Amino acid sequence: MRVALFVTCLADTLFPDVGKATVRLLERLGQQVEFPQAQTCCGQMHVNTGYLRDALPLVRRYAEVLGGYEAIVVPSGSCTGSVRHQHAMVARHYGDEDLARRAEAVASRTFELSEFLTDVLGLEDVGAYYPHRVTYHPTCHSLRLLRVGDRPLRLLRHVAGLDLVELPDAEVCCGFGGTFAVKNADVSTAMLADKMRSVLATRAEVCTAGDSSCLMHIGGGLSRLNAGTRTVHLAEILASTGDGT
Which of 34, 152, 155, 159 is deepest in the core (most CB within 10 A)? Predict the structure, then answer.
């Protein structure tokens, strides 16, 4: 299968280990992964803040650069949600039906990481080893837009050495929401405080999720508390086969 990695802006600029872990994991599972260097932002932040015209060339770029692949794997529920639910809409908003159809076609082959592992490869045990106490935060876009359900949890339950503990009020938003955290800082901070309280109640060493954005938000809060709990992307846990560090 010809597989492309769509790395996302956050992995590209701030969390490169997430992209590297995704490739390492997929190659261990026998996939040939390519990284199309012409890829750019998915355009989600433009659409979510009302700049649809600025998102249009990004939609076109995604379809042109990634349209030839059998599968596109994305270590982000948020960006996957944008590709699936916004790209064709943006194209149709500006009357480009040909682009809308191409966007729909490539969106149908775009998968969030846990979806690709479970639904396409048919795997739950990916041969990972991670000897830590871990709790999982289901991010809003993966939970509500993509409906990934328990796929990440099924993968985590098969990780050797991992002690998975349930997160209280897991489905409650962490408060990030992209520009929401900037425009509504007080509300975002209050939501973050609730989420951190739930994470710390688990006494987990690690809080994981499928989106670097939420982990950045939660991890920033936890670091300021010197709580001793760190955030690690799901891809990094699933790619781990050594001592879990």
Answer: 152
Whether residue 194 is found in the same domain as residue 97: no
Residue 22: name the closest of 167, 224, 238, 227 by CA.
238
Q: Could you tell me which of 78, 215, 201 has the C-alpha nearest to residue 137?
A: 215
Q: Is the Cβ–Cβ distance between 202 and 168 less than 8 Å?
A: yes
Residues near 128 by beta carbon (within 8 Å), at least 6 away in sequence: 158, 159, 160, 162, 237, 238, 239, 240, 241
CB 128 within 8 A of CB 116: no
**Torsion of the alpha carbons at 195, 196, 198 and 202, rounded to the nearest 10:** 140
Nearest to 171 by CA among 141, 128, 200: 141
Query: What are the pLDDT digits (tens) for 125-184?
Result: 999 999 999 999 999 999 999 999 999 999 999 999 999 999 999 999 999 988 888 888
If you average pLDDT over every residue of the chain, what do you get?
A: 95
Rounded Cα gap, residues 127 and 67, in angstroms: 30
Domain of residue 18: give its range. 2-120
Looking at the fold, whether 174 and 102 belong to one and the same domain comes out as: no
Q: Are 129 and 244 in contact (CB under 8 A)?
A: yes
81-135: per-residue pLDDT in tens? 999 999 999 999 999 999 999 999 999 999 999 999 999 999 999 999 999 999 9
Tell if the pTM clears 0.90, that is, is over it. Answer: yes
CA 107 – CA 32 distance, rounded (Å): 20
How many domains is the chain partitioned into structurally?
A: 2
- Average pLDDT over every residue of 41-69: 96
